[in-house]
Design brief:
single chain, about 400 residues, alpha/beta, Archaeosine Trna-guanine Transglycosylase, Chain: A, domain 4, Rossmann fold, 3 domains, 10 helices, about 25% helix, about 25% strand
Length: about 400
């Protein structure tokens, strides 16, 4: 066994780890080895010297992210086993070998017992994002594990961690291919084709977490006038079109997003005049559409990434949903979402309910939505349930 640095917790601060929660907060730490630095692999012990887990040390509120609650070496065998377990789950879901869908999340942080690591798979290309220094320092073994596990199903690995690692960490990550190269950045989702801009786009290039919710939207779209707010690359838009929508309008403040949306719609529905896209402010657009649409999708970026802006975020969700309730046609349907991890499911629901009450409309819940199965939630880490959604019928 390798010898790792040690972290000792204060008396009584071991309870969350004994319940297999994978985070150690800085306030729970009694002492650490003097030479410890960010990114180190550390063993965590309680005040009585009982081993609790092994993970990556980092500077910040979350001081250790646990990778295993057993004494293990974080060698190539460890990483291969973890990646293999994650891949096997996606195979069991029918995602890894589907002829209609070749884009999915392969590794989902805590949900796959690999906190700090995100890997999305797009038609042979793995796009990896490290969210901790420890993961970044282990990237070579992670990439070697991907090659061993995926074999011929892997054509390229693109690393995209410039914007996700702590800016104070002295590691200077660079986005780019670490092996192979993708000549075409296209993928399939339920038989629909879309372009993925992992080099310049948000996150890993596409929001694969909305796959099942987009598919559900298709069944609601027939004969409706659809507004897709915060459209990004237009995922909800081309599902609405396949579902038989009368018109589909896509709105985003980013000109680049609108270009991607138009390209994606044209790929699937060339020369189809039902679709138009606009690069304008969302709130301004929503204020000027009275009775124009009877299906509205509200899928904004995270309004709150940290607890200290939670109050402002809830106000933003309330204002956004209130506008939609005021403007939508009678008998309309709203798909509304929050992807802010610090906004709980209960908070989001109460915020939407207060917006509905303010509008004076009669509103009923048709569906309660969350992230898909390739974004699993570790049962010991409920914070992993970040995506919340409601499908609402508005009289």
């Amino acid at each position: 066994m390798n010898k790792y640095s040690q972290v000792v917790l204060k008396p009584g601060k071991d309870q969350s780890l004994l319940r297999y929660h994978p985070w150690v907060f800085s306030g729970a730490i009694k002492k650490t080895d003097k030479h410890i630095v960010e990114g180190d692999t550390v063993e965590v012990f309680n005040n009585d010297g009982f081993f609790l887990g092994i993970g990556h040390y980092q500077i910040g509120s979350i001081a250790v992210r646990i990778l295993s609650f057993k004494k293990v070496d974080l060698d190539i065998d460890f990483w291969v086993e973890k990646i293999q377990n994650a891949y096997q789950l996606r195979r069991s879901l029918g995602l890894a070998e589907s002829d209609k869908t070749n884009a999915f999340r392969l590794v989902h942080g805590e949900g796959d017992e690999l906190p700090g690591l995100i890997i999305d798979y797009y038609n042979g290309t793995c796009v990896a994002q490290m969210h901790s220094v420890g993961m970044y320092l282990n990237r070579e073994m992670i990439y070697e594990s991907l090659k061993l596990v995926l074999g011929v199903r892997l054509t390229a690995i693109y690393e995209k961690s410039e914007g996700t690692l702590p800016f104070k960490a002295d590691i200077n990550p660079k986005n780019g291919y670490v092996c192979g190269h993708s000549a075409e950045s296209f993928a399939l989702e339920y038989g629909l084709k879309f372009g993925v801009d992992w080099e310049k786009g948000q996150k890993t290039g596409f929001f694969v977490d909305q796959r099942e919710n987009r598919f559900l939207l298709e069944s609601y779209s027939k004969g409706r006038s659809v507004l897709n707010m915060f459209c990004y690359t237009g995922g909800f838009s081309f599902y609405a079109m396949r579902g038989g929508a009368k018109i589909v309008h896509s709105v985003d403040s980013s000109e680049r997003a609108i270009e991607l949306t138009r390209a994606n719609v044209d790929m699937n529905f060339p020369d189809d005049n039902r679709h138009e896209a606009y690069a304008v402010d969302a709130f301004k657009y929503l204020s000027e559409i009275k009775d124009k649409y009877d299906l509205i999708i509200l899928d904004p970026p995270a309004f709150a990434k940290h607890q200290n802006v939670l109050s402002n975020a809830l106000q933003g969700y309330r204002k956004l949903n209130a506008k939609a309730f005021e403007q939508i046609k009678k008998g309309g349907i709203i798909f509304t979402f929050s992807c802010s991890q610090v906004v709980t499911k209960d908070m989001f629901r109460k915020t939407v309910f207060s917006a509905a009450a303010k509008s004076g409309r009669h509103v009923r819940i048709l569906n309660q939505l969350t992230q898909p199965a390739d974004h699993p939630v570790n049962i010991y880490h409920p914070e992993g349930e970040y995506l919340k959604g409601l499908v609402l019928y508005v009289d």
